[in-house]
Design brief:
By secondary structure, the chain is of the alpha/beta class. It has twelve helices and nine strands. It is elongated, with a radius of gyration of 25 Å.
Length: 304
């Protein structure tokens, strides 16, 4: 979005840290859009500044900057202005896609290509204008804080190192194990020892898998020395509406094992549900508690 020169001059001198400047920029641009404009003027910026400063006036903040300059002998105003110009030059994303370190650390439990799915989800979120959607949900007098962005969390396996169960959209890699008929079982019990869910036992000289207890982690397959157990299918588990923090709660599982096309369809359906169903600013957890999970399935469009 374009900014008037006068608005730029005022913005870069704001005596606040970078993250607060970013929040002010997002709010000022949201106010401009709500007024039907594609340009931020001094009017929108001044309204956003009032929300940003809250109970501490700009004059008080400027006096604090002066005190710091007198103590350290460095003109912090130059740094503030440079930082402000940098904030204006970059778009602030109101979404985040977190991945575990499985790919970079070459984790042996990794079941999916993390970088690939992250890139596709980020591209889809940008196409859906999530930044504008999240910003527009807030009241004109409401700051956009660190916990407001939409968060997608992806882990490479059911170990869930990034806590996907407690995020807006949670994804982790899964693999359904299966018994290979033509291979003999040595009855070494390695698969049983490897299974955290006690989903395997040996019957009549062959492994039997209780899929209702299986986490689809593939540890039994990796432990099997003969190849009697193999992976039937790899894919993604998808959860939505988790909540992180003081009142944390697990999200709702939509799919236990599905493909990447469905992952992207869920992302799109979640964004549409938030945009169309939220009352003011509401996270997906609250929306689902109010209207249920059905509207997300109804908004999913998957071409088969």
């Amino acid at each position: 979005m374009e900014w008037d020169k006068d608005a730029v001059a005022i913005f870069i001198k704001m005596p606040v840290i970078r993250s607060v400047k970013e929040s002010t920029k997002v709010l000022a641009e949201a106010l401009a859009r709500k007024s039907g404009s594609e340009r931020v003027t001094v009017k929108e910026l001044e309204a956003a500044k009032k929300v940003t400063y809250g109970r501490v006036s700009e004059k008080t903040r400027q006096l604090d900057i002066d005190k710091r300059i007198s103590r350290c002998g460095v003109d912090l105003r130059q740094r503030l202005e440079k930082e402000g110009l940098d904030v204006l030059a970059k778009d602030k994303n109101l979404f985040r896609v977190d991945i575990c370190q499985g790919q970079s650390a070459k984790c042996v439990n990794l079941l999916i290509d993390l970088d690939e799915v992250k890139k596709e989800i980020e591209q889809k979120l940008l196409e859906l204008n999530v930044n504008e959607i999240v910003a527009n949900l807030h009241r004109d007098d409401e700051s956009i804080l660190a916990h407001h962005p939409l968060v997608v969390s992806i882990s490479g396996c059911p170990g869930s190192c990034t806590g996907p169960e407690t995020r807006t959209i949670g994804i982790h890699g899964v693999s359904k194990p299966g018994v290979v008929p033509e291979v003999s079982c040595s009855e070494c019990y390695s698969c049983i020892n490897a299974c955290f869910g006690s989903a395997i036992n040996i019957q009549n000289g062959t492994p039997k898998i209780n899929y209702s207890r299986c986490d689809h982690c593939e540890l039994c397959v990796m432990a099997c020395p003969t190849g009697k157990l193999g992976s039937e299918k790899r894919g993604y588990r998808i959860m939505v509406g988790g909540r992180f923090g003081r009142f944390h709660d697990f999200g709702t599982q939509l799919f236990r094992l599905t493909d990447k096309k469905t992952v992207i369809a869920v992302v799109e359906a979640v964004v549409k549900t938030i945009a169309e169903e939220a009352i003011g600013y509401e996270d997906l957890y609250t929306i689902i508690k109010r209207i249920g999970i059905g509207p997300i399935f109804q908004r999913m469009c998957i071409e088969r």
